[in-house]
Amino acid sequence: MVVVEEEEEEKEAAAEKDKASPSVHVNTAMSESPDARSLLSASSQLNLMEMDAIDDKEFDIPQVDTPPTLESILNELEDEEEPFVLEDTCMLNTDNMDAHSCDTSSLASSDSGDPAHLKRKRRTVDLNATVHGSVLRHSLLKGISAQIVSAADKVDAGLPTAITVSGVIAVGTSHGLALVFDTNQALRLCLGTKATGAEFGAVSALSINHDCSRLLCGFAKGQITMWDLASGKLLRTITDAHPPGTAILHVKFTDDPTLAVCNDSGGSVFELAFRRVMGMRSCDSRCLFSGSKGEVCCIEPLRAPPDFKDHPITQYSLLAMASLTKILVIGLKPSLKVWMTFPYSKSDPASVPQLAWQFVPVQKMVNPILAFCKGDTVHFLLVKKEETGTIHVIKQKQLHLSCDIISLSWINSRTLVLVDSHEKLQVVDRPSQEVLETLDLEQVQLVYNSRHFKSLATGGNVSQALALVGEKACYQSVSSYAGQIVYLGTKSAHIMALRNWRERIDCLLKQEHFVEALSLAWSFHEGTAKAVVGLFGDPLKRKGVVGDKMVEILFQFAEHALKKCPDQGKIQVMEQHFHDVVPVLVDYCLLLKRADLIFNQLYAQLVENMVAKGVFLESLESYIVADRLCHLTTPIMRDLLAHYHGNGMMDSLERCIVHLDVTSLDIQQVVQVCWENQLYDAMIYVFNSGMNDYITPMEKLFAVIGPQLRAGRSLKDEEVVMGNKLLVYISCCLAGRAYPLGDIPEDLVVQVKYQVFEFLIRLHSADSLEEEEEVFPFIRTLLHFDTREFLNVLAMTFEDFKNDKQALEYQQRIVDILLQKQNHLQHKPWVMVDNPDFTPSQVGGLFTFLARQLAKPDNTLFVNRKLFDQVLEFLCCPDDDSRHTERQQVLLELLQVGGVVQFNEGRLLALAEKAKFYQICEFLYEKKHLYDRIIDCYLRDPLRKGEIFSYIHNLLSMPGYSPEEKQTVRDKVLQHIKELVTLDPSKSADLVVFHFAKEVQQIICELQDDQLLFQFLSCLLEPREGHHSGTILPQEQDLHELLLDLLCRFGPNQLLSFLQTSQHYRLEEAIQITQKYHRNEATAYLLEKKGDVHGAFTVLLETLKENLSLLTAESDRGADGGEGRQDEEERDSESKLTGVKDSLNDIIVLCHRNSDSLYQQQREVVVSALWFPLLETMMASQKLVKGLNDEHTFEVLKELTMKVLNCMSTFISLPAIIQRILKDPVYGKGKLAEIQGLILGMLDTFNYEQTLLETTTSLLNHDLHWSLAHLRAAVTRGLHPRQDYCNICLQQYKRRQDSAEEIIVFSCGHLYHHQCLQQKDSGWGFTSELQQRWSCYKCSSSQGGRGVPSTEPKRGRSTSLAQTRVTSVSHDAGAEAHRKKVFVDATLDLQQEQSWDQLRCLYRGPSRLSILSELSHCHSSDKTGLLFPAQPGTDHFQLKLSPPPLLEE
Known about the structure:
The chain is an alpha+beta fold and 1449 residues long. The strands form 10 sheets. Strands 18, 19, 20, 21 and 22 form a 5-stranded antiparallel beta sheet that branches. A 4-stranded antiparallel beta sheet has the order 1-29-28-27. A hairpin with a 5-residue loop joins strand 6 and strand 7 (214-219). Helix 23 runs parallel beside helix 25 (840-855), helix 40 (1080-1090) runs antiparallel to helix 41 (1093-1120) and helix 41 packs parallel to helix 43.
């Protein structure tokens, strides 16, 4: 073994652990060779470890709260529950390899001695300490490192290239030498010479057999040598084991000393079988895997530790191989067999495949696990032998890391050590997948094997993919053995081993990281730590050893904290210093269940510093409150009282006292402190728990609040708190619960309850003079303090009095006291009703409480009924207006809990009506079924008027009322309908629609006010959704016409929308109404609806003329008026211009709508009658304004005239418009310049429209041709049958040579005989008498129905798009039959047409024509017309198109 533990004690501990725990112990004893004996004799020495310790770095990695066990992880299968045995090696191929990334990679690489190409920018590392501490011991092998440098300088051995470790350490060099060192780091052998180095090249691979007797060396030029490690003699030189011209990448011994495997740079793997016949040594080579099937770049035979030499899996001599695309596991014995192949997930082609075996305990069985990775994911495969003799491979949970792994090694059965491409070493716990530690290996200057992977020594004849992987290959620089890993650098060798548990803690203590050291020690104590070495397997022994260590750390921590405390400076700094220490000390003492340490040694240490003492005492609070610390020693309790009292921390002191064991308290001192500082909870707790006294605390509290309440003074905040505590305390005592927490001892529960009752019903308090005090002071005080809560306490207490005779007597006694009329001793009436100190709520609360008690079925209380009458008069006093709502609410509550039994209902109703208690009246009317009277209550009650509609609707809708009761309510509603409509017209209308549809005329007659009637009818006739949307009211036409009349008077803005939405008015009557009130827009709408377009046009034209005349008159006044009114006139002119524009828009929309709807022969006559009068009107007004010199108005009118012309040009030819313009006196007599603008504008419009038409036609023709061409191509495509047999009868489509059978082929590829389809009834319609429509039987069956066409298109092609029949025709006898295709006409049914439409949509976007239409809509006029939006394209359309080029014939 290379590294041995330092202390004898730890060896014993490790031995104990190995016996008790299921983890695997690797026995490092070797066979009895001289070398092995020398190694064992040196094993007690630590010369190998004489080196400078490298600084430990701690990393902040979060701890898993409940890490899973190893067994749970190993038994967790991910996707495949079944073990898998994959394909043979012949199935391997390299097709999946990303060859493109290889093509661009540079093949130039540094030699193994110069890894500068890997010195990339490293990630920043967090140096905060973690609970794992330093897991690895990193040591420099000084002796070996010195010898490597010396050999390179003195004998020109070259740079180191490979290393391997077993019982000895062997280092290969670039000049072909192998240096062998023992455990003392002394050079034992130097194998080979510079001459052989010149011939063979550098040492590229090394391997030592299990008994350290043989060394295999692989060379860069392909040779392999075997050496005797005892004598240093060369035993074999193998030159023909593999194809020449390739370097040896790996050479490995198996468990069988006569068997080894090697891997060359051609990607092939060979088995080497060593023979010795008659003194002659030979070597037989067998190819296990050819590089032509996929290049292997890593091999790893399964080598069992000495303890598992007889494991059943070893008989197969398993070998894992990693190619560039997958992992293979093969068995070399008894015959060559591939047991498993596993492809990689997608990864970087430059990633280096890694393999590592380890025997791991799983479910009380030890089996090997193969860890492999390529990139950032480590996979684990559990390999086990079944009883049948087969090997099963079970996939385990993967490990994902965010780095590219270049080295993978097991250091024990639970822990992996990885190196990434940034030369960062990571220690990972496999079960929890937690990274325990990260180290930087930059100083190692790791050796890379790039030169050998590129086979530079033989001319570089390797594939680009293998050369790319070789950039980061360092297989020969890392070697693990017996829990230690050796790393080879360019000038040094380094060794990594797991630290034992004490060492890990001591590392943290050296750095004064006491908190982290304690946290790590506690994880050892609880068995949750990772990568543990040197601890007992028995939990009790483990906890004992670790606990002692933790106690030692606690004392060191306390001593260190006192030493490091700043002597001067702010007190806050010193306090913060101890706040970081003391809670940690207390926490771990309590976790270890060593409270004695806190009270004795630790407190004795901390008490030397006053600040530490204070922080210690204050930190105890959280543990006491959490019940983790229930008992304090007397000295600490005394100091705690003094400290909290001295620093004013009274709330904290109280919280502590109520959680502490009373026996540790000085009761007299504590009671005095509590009373002086108003710590009532603590005082009650001490009296209750310490002296079983439950009455004295109540006496003390009553003594404080009683005099204040009797004097009528308001209580302070702290006295209110005290009163509330008193109520809660009484409630707890009566319920058997301790205050402030816990329960009263069972044997005292009844006794305490009786004591409290006796206390409450005392006539006088103990320390008062009877003449000065009123009777029953305690009950009186509680009633004054909070009547309702005190009565609630009594009510909860009375709930528990079932069979307790004594308690029932107390109950009656308390009720009698509450209602006592007269105190015979002082002859003073004492009834709450007569006492002005009590509010109605308090009085009502008392009687509500009594009513609830009396209403119980098992009630035993007796109460005089006259008292209830007295309370009723008090609450219903009409002279007292104060607290009206409160008194009504109290009385209502009293009635609802059963108080009505105690009252005379008639008297109660009279008093309630007199006092205007309408809710009380409603309650009583409800009992008497006088529902119509309830409506009066709602109408009179100002607070609940709005609820009347819901009440009426619910009552008339619900089934629980008789027809007579509902009729009385209906009569009452009709009687008050005017009041209801005034209150809310909308809700009234809903009520009428639902329940009073037949009485509408009567209701309208009741509503005399026209404005009120308008509001009501507007709500009544508005469109409704839901159940009553189609309710028909009687004389509905008359109602709508009445509303139309009212709208003309009160709501002209809503008139047009009403006419458009309502369908219940008569046209002639509606026209008369709108004409009567001169509502021209509405009249025009109705006339157009009637069909009188000219009449509508005339009405709107008249409106336009009126607006134009107002505008011209305004312009005339503007020309004559002065400048003083200029602003006002401008505003007036703008409003009139707006009126003109709106009128013109309305009339243009009317003309557009009706011109579009006319036929061609009618259009010219009618259109002329609409558009030309409009044009003449605009021209005439333009002429008038021109004479008045109002330039702005003239320009606006000119624009409006152009707008009319543009709109006309859609329907009237341009020559006709120009002829009419030239005849017009406005333009006919003037110069041509005046009409130039009009004519040019029309010509522009003509050019634009001609271009638009020609372009649109071209686009349409192109799109139509494209669509038809693609549709034709799709429909005429041939059909390809999937098979040559019928899918129903499963016979060949030509069953008999001599018969002609019809065959039907569908577009889905299925083929059928015509007869078979007829039998299955797959036809579903006839296009003609001769041709039946068929559907594919198989497709339609799989979709859930047979022979029935789907009503919606599906993705499956169940029907033939173009059904094709193939008829088999027989020729002359003896001639070979052949088939002739007969095509029938292709037809598409509705479903197929929908499918083709969908298909075309997939291949096409919107047509170009639709894009142009969209553009034109976007630029259409923003101004909407009277009834409908204006026609598009009438205003400022911006699309500019050049005319299409002229095509020559």
